[in-house]
Amino acid sequence: xxxxxxxxxxxxxxxxxxxxxxxxxxxxxxxxxxxxxxxxxxxxxxxxxxxxxxxxxxxxxxxxxxxxxxxxxxxxxxxxxxxxxxxxxxxxxxxxxxxxxxxxxxxxxxxxxxxxxxxxxxxxxxxxxxxxxxxxxxxxxxxxxxxxxxxxxxxxxxxxxxxxxxxxxxxxxxxxxxxxxxxxxxxxxxxxxxxxxxxxxxxxxxxxxxxxxxxxxxxxxxxxxxxxxxxxxxxxxxxxxxxxxxxxxxxxxxxxxxxxxxxxxxxxxxxxxxxxxxxxxxxxxxxxxxxxxxxxxxxxxxxxxxxxxxxxxxxxxxxxxxxxxxxxxxxxxxxxxxxxxxxxxxxxxxxxxxxxxxxxxxxxxxxxxxxxxxxxxxxxxxxxxxxxxxxxxxxxxxxxxxxxxxxxxxxxxxxxxxxxxxxxxxxxxxxxxxxxxxxxxxxxxxxxxxxxxxxxxxxxxxxxxxxxxxxxxxxxxxxxxxxxxxxxxxxxxxxxxxxxxxxxxxxxxxxxxxxxxxxxxxxxxxxxxxxxxxxxxxxxxxxxxxxxxxxxxxxxxxxxxxxxxxxxxxxxxxxxxxxxxxxxxxxxxxxxxxxxxxxxxxxxxxxxxxxxxxxxxxxxxxxxxxxxxxxxxxxxxxxxxxxxxxxxxxxxxxxxxxxxxxxxxxxxxxxxxxxxxxxxxxxxxxxxxxxxxxxxxxxxxxxxxxxxxxxxxxxxxxxxxxxxxxxxxxxxxxxxxxxxxxxxxxxxxxxxxxxxxxxxxxxxxxxxxxxxxxxxxxxxxxxxxxxxxxxxxxxxxxxxxxxxxxxxxxxxxxxxxxxxxxxxxxxxxxxxxxxxxxxxxxxxxxxxxxxxxxxxxxxxxxxxxxxxxxxxxxxxxxxxxxxxxxxxxxxxxxxxxxxxxxxxxxxxxxxxxxxxxxxxxxxxxxxxxxxxxxxxxxxxxxxxxxxxxxxxxxxxxxxxxxxxxxxxxxxxxxxxxxxxxxxxxxxxxxxxxxxxxxxxxxxxxx
Amino acid sequence: xxxxxxxxxxxxxxxxxxxxxxxxxxxxxxxxxxxxxxxxxxxxxxxxxxxxxxxxxxxxxxxxxxxxxxxxxxxxxxxxxxxxxxxxxxxxxxxxxxxxxxxxxxxxxxxxxxxxxxxxxxxxxxxxxxxxxxxxxxxxxxxxxxxxxxxxxxxxxxxxxxxxxxxxxxxxxxxxxxxxxxxxxxxxxxxxxxxxxxxxxxxxxxxxxxxxxxxxxxxxxxxxxxxxxxxxxxxxxxxxxxxxxxxxxxxxxxxxxxxxxxxxxxxxxxxxxxxxxxxxxxxxxxxxxxxxxxxxxxxxxxxxxxxxxxxxxxxxxxxxxxxxxxxxxxxxxxxxxxxxxxxxxxxx
Lengths: 1006, 348
Known about the structure:
The structure holds 2 protein chains of 2 kinds. Chain A is α+β, with helices and mostly antiparallel strands. Among the domains of chain A are: 3-126 and 164-292 and 597-631, Orthogonal Bundle (Neutral Protease, domain 2), CATH 1.10.390; 313-391; 738-1003, no CATH class. Chain A has an 18-stranded mixed beta sheet that branches. In chain A, strands 4-5-3-2-1-31 form a 6-stranded mixed beta sheet, with helices on one face. In chain A, strands 7, 8, 9, 10 and 11 form a 5-stranded antiparallel beta sheet that branches. The longest helix of chain A has 23 residues, at 273-295. The radius of gyration of chain A is 30 Å and the shape is globular. Chain A starts with a helix and ends with a strand. By secondary structure, chain B is mainly α. In chain B, helix 13 (163-169) packs across helix 20. The longest helix of chain B has 22 residues, at 3-24. Chain B is elongated, with a radius of gyration of 33 Å.
């Protein structure tokens, strides 16, 4: 359950909490926010109870508390998420799944998602008696926070299995889900077989358990899907080799089981996880080699490469006969996703335009108007899709419709309309997008028309319109997993009727990307009918006869007829899809493969007993289970999530305290209250002694109280003698004497990711300050008895992008502006600060260049805590929790440490920085399963700072430096960054006097 | 005929009947992937994949029919319109949504055209019109073509402002005279009105029409009426008097009855009414029983005052949506209140 999800709810749902409806039973809170989702709630409730009862028996599980399920429609494709820390919660997206390349199985999505997500809750929430002891001790399951890193340890004690890799969680969930659905799922997945067959065939790397986590899920074009692929396959192997009950025993967290997932593996299987994984790899090679032999029973289709480049994921391609080019959307490591033109003559891949929000597999839905030289494509493909045009002649991109939630675009040449499939409230609707808008003749393709809404459970995808505009081809799936190729009559659709001819029922194999030839005589597409994705041709003039056109060994996809002798297609490789030609020649014989899942269920028929019927009202009487129906009011569901002791730092002293975290299950409201005490004689030996104020502590400074909270768009904080754990480790101090209270209101003015514009309005009161609340070097004695009231307003815009494999933004823009006004004793003190950063991708993969600028001005000559800016140092502490790359901050100045004999305090300033961010170096096997490093990255920078101040002095400094960050992962989940930096600063107004600074820092948690 | 031939012909006949039935039914299939079992592809070895045969249960959902509307382009367009969302939240619209006549009326093209008309909205929000709509006589009159002809005459509206005319309209004698063709004939004669003003009745008496009229007892009574005398000097009255529609209408007992109604006279002098009366759609609508039913409702007047409704009425998508059967059904249903919540929540 991410914060983004809460954000989306805040954005889409009115601030009034009355909009959240709830059905409550003994085990479930089913929360929804949209009238359009009401139809599915009883079904979802029944599926929940049916699945939970199943998991109770299979995993010997009893929930520690009710499980809150949020039904949402935030994306155009089905998705789910689950957590059990601090509270049990599931987020369930209603949209149809994406069936691209058959990466997701067809079926009833609420049923299968509920089965799947509840396995996650079981795996996270199931507990042994020691876990339950710690849960009682800490008043719940502790969620780690980076402000108190000791909470990560407590979190491990209360929920140890949370600290397991994603492949483990997704693997067990997908495996169990497959058999609960009667064999529909990734454990029987054709794409899964293809991925491992291809890797074995090409002798490509199959990641180790650690390599998968450290590299496989970030640099591979399949991204995080690798967690599902590897996890399910590994579970499949274990189940096949040792029996399904063994993997359940591994995942169960019961008395006598081991806390760590890897220790429990050894406990169950009698070998280390690494050895178990190696055994699987041996088995997999053997299994796949046998399948390859089966395929070679008949001649394998020869391919002719068009380019040696593999281009990661690809959209449906379109052939420009005039220019002999193929247009498509591509997404591969090192380049941001884009529309591209493949020159068939020489294999050159030409970038046309960036694609905002590319989908992992289909990238973007693209269609082509050859006559007008226009491409139409979708953006925000993982959210609510937009329609855009790209003018091939001018290169101009234009957004035509925002959030129109439609994809699978097809162009009707006869009337220039675009057809597509809209996803809304979990339904698929065939829509037509006319070219003309009678209300605005200048706005082409700005309207859409509902043509036919399919019944729930029937998903339609991969459509095309025949050249004569009379037929619309489509793949249609039902909730039993059957998938057929259909021909719709366009005239009927125009009057909102569906008149359909069935070409072929491919059963559980999806008909993919069937498109009409230019003469309208054939449809070419692909299907895993043989277990391998082959090309098929439908003869529309010959009784819809289907012929196989290939016998692939890996898989062919998305064919286009180039001429009578050759077809264009994508050939699957371990690096992604490769454009090739194959002969346009029907085959007599095509081989098939065996599925691992198939062999396993034959070997262990007990898997058949895992099948769970889709719950009907007769099987699960939800009305009898419902205890309460009404509205979900976050305030009423707030409870203590956890409470635990902490260590804290105050100035140069060590203290201790206790933190209580509260919240509602969906995190709409969160509070944290901390009490701490610092004995006057507990001096911190590690801290710097450069600041004399930090060596003094009066008795009235010994008590510390902090209250943090979030209610909707408001966040607030109050501190009395604010303490900070990280002040124990290093020169940067954020602990402050005095009392402060602050309220911020954040309103997102633009949410079009990656573009985002936030407005933050805040007000605060400060009393008893010894120094600036923002700059530790700005000491302002004499204001201890002054009350300052501060108002500030900020605008923060960002549009940052990165390609697959990037560890930081690689290009884009970020701009901020902030104005502050502090009032005290009838006087106003105002300041303004602004910054503007811009970055570009350089021709080398993952290499980028950034220009960062900032300026600021205080409108008062008076020196007080709110009228000066301070610049110094990298800004990182030895142990830290804020951003590792703090040298980029406006008020950092690497080279000039806090300990230097000179400091920069300014009333006005201007600053510029140039920065090279070098490509990350990946480590596949550095460390062990519970502690490893996965990448390091170098940055080089130089900045110039000019300041003005009558009280202090005018300064002109430059610096040059570098930093290296090394990513470390502890317990699969706790990411930390070790940074080393070095910089020299030069005082240009003082004979280029040189200062130098080393920085070492371990940033804990993300 | 051999037995095998008979069987063959029988099969052919059944096939022909089946094909004819298919085409007569419009060639429409209730498509289900299950109905089309794959029979195999020549030369291709299908992969062996386990799939349970038990997975046949139906998914039981509640109220999916409303999705036809929620997926509708006009509805979605409306939902992105702030005015529509505001309107849906407004109590008057909510109340009217339950009114079957309003929903019927909303489908009428005349109404949707007229709803764009500023004068109509002015009129609809006037309490005079609302009150009058409750009067059966007015309802009856609305169907009368002559009344609409008269109503669009500027003279009528002008005259309606005159207190004398109001007074006169209440007089049974005036109405009696007004329906007399001789009166209309006479009114065409400028001299008659001049004379009437100058009281030179001697001259007038020479006119055969006047002679005819003079015999009329009602006219005799009327002539004594100071209101008539006052009005006779009015140029608009002269115009009106010679208007055949007025004469025709004067024969109508309903008009006679309504003439005594103060609200009617209020309405008659309203410039919006006069302007509107020129509008063909308004004339059509006045004949519609639903319109007059709805017009009686205070919510209708409230709605007419609603700025969002006025803006929305100009939006063609709104007219289209109001014609949408599912939407109007939904508006009557209890689900509508939830739809209102959706309007306020989903697109903020």
